[in-house]
Amino acid sequence: MTITPADWQSREALILAPWAMHAHASRGRVHAEQPHPFRSPYQRDHDRIVHSAAFRRLAHKTQVFTAYPGDYHRSRLTHTLEVTSIARTLARALSLNEDLVETLALAHDIGHPPLGHAGEDTLNELLAGEGGFNHNRQALRIMEFLETRYPQFPGLNLSLEVLEAQATRKRDGTAPPPLLETQVVDAADSIAYDTHDADDAIELGLLTLDELIELPLVADAAARVRDRYGLLIGVELRRAVLHELVDFQVAELISCARITLAAESINSVALVRAFFTTSASPGGGRIVTPSDLVATGKQQLEQFLFQRVYRSEQVMRVRVAVQDKISRLFGWYCQRPAEMPAGYRQRALDMGAPRSVADYIAGMSDRYLDWEYQRCLGVG
Prior knowledge:
Strand content: under 5%
Order of helices and strands: HHHHHHHHHHHHHHHHHH
Radius of gyration: 22 Å
């Protein structure tokens, strides 16, 4: 059987809603390429992310809990896969472009440096005179410049819609209004890190499920679990409550989005963008956004996690240690840029050592940074 480009276009025409981003309407790429004989543009983007070095390194980058024993808690890669799973469910329920959604979800964290947010904050401080450091901007640098896998262009040469979505995550006002596919990934990311950071924190003994259940959003989830399953205790109760917390938020997002799409008579990508620009709603013109009640519950959960987990004595003690490690390694490389691989050495000449050193360190996994720290500074 002969496979033609029209096959994926026919499939999209059959299953995608008019408010979804159809691949045939893509604005293309920065560097023009011949169409693939049987993969859509967003399928190609998906595969380019999966095959990139930056994506592979997520397996050994900390999500939140640096230097904690055990292997239960999330890495950047497992977090990314969980975001992708949630985003795909939302996309399918809303008849959006799943290829684009999965691409955006898989790519959303590739700019994170090692050692969690401590790594990002440290690099931002070290680059204060060089424009700072932000993992969303860094992801764009990887996509457009740093990840060199093809001989005919720099970067990954992803579709303009993928680059646009990543630019939206920078939140600097320069990107166009977000597609529904972008909004879905942002919502999925929020659900994933709230719920799974709580799960990891309980597993590591930083808080208890009883403390978590005192929060209204979690208490409601626990009540539904008890109604459905009766008496559960321990790990069974925790897993059931956290699963319900994810499932409820996903279902609520789908319901709210469908109501808004119908109420606003949105039947095109152009109207999705126009609604974002003109709406005075609390969601800021986002269609994929929780109700006010759930948004309040999420805010309470996030404030609780910030105080009890992200700024806990245990986490902060480790944070100080890893920030010192990154700072010392950064200074060592800035004084010795010739110690970096060839591409980074050349960029240090072109753009200055600090930015090139930051690019190099940001691309490291946690364990590789430890090896380099020991090699370069002679300490573990």
